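Structure (tokenized):
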């Protein structure tokens, strides 16, 4: 097995796969590689990387998997606090939870829809 830093060159959202440029292997473009997601059966999680995004891949010959994206000098972490869990979208919308302060922040650039059998506001 070999771990490599690669760059996403094509995205196939309907299959949860990508192609990557293997910089450490003469810049060859991989076959479609599955992305390792946190959950895919009863609970599901889904976010596709962008073209140009740096990722870490594991290869066993020509078979490989995308393990996840990595921060770099070009794209640094948006938060510098280990107590915060943060998700930001390209339009500027974000969700942040601070476990130390117990504060949930949601900022949307668009509409917010909340649906539920009972919605309690305190």
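Design, position by position:
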């Amino acid at each position: 097995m070999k771990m490599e830093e690669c760059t996403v060159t094509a995205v196939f959202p309907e299959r949860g796969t990508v192609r990557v440029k293997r910089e450490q292997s003469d810049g060859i473009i991989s076959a479609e590689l599955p992305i390792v997601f946190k959950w895919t059966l009863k609970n599901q999680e889904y976010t596709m990387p962008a073209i140009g995004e740096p990722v870490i891949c594991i290869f066993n010959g020509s078979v490989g998997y995308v393990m996840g994206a990595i921060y770099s000098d070009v794209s640094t972490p948006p938060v510098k606090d280990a107590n915060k869990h943060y998700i930001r979208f390209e339009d500027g919308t974000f969700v942040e939870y601070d476990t130390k302060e117990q504060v949930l922040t949601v900022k949307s650039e668009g509409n917010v829809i909340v649906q539920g059998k009972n919605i309690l506001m305190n």
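Reviewer-requested clarification: The first strand starts at residue 2 and ends at 12. The mean pLDDT is 95.
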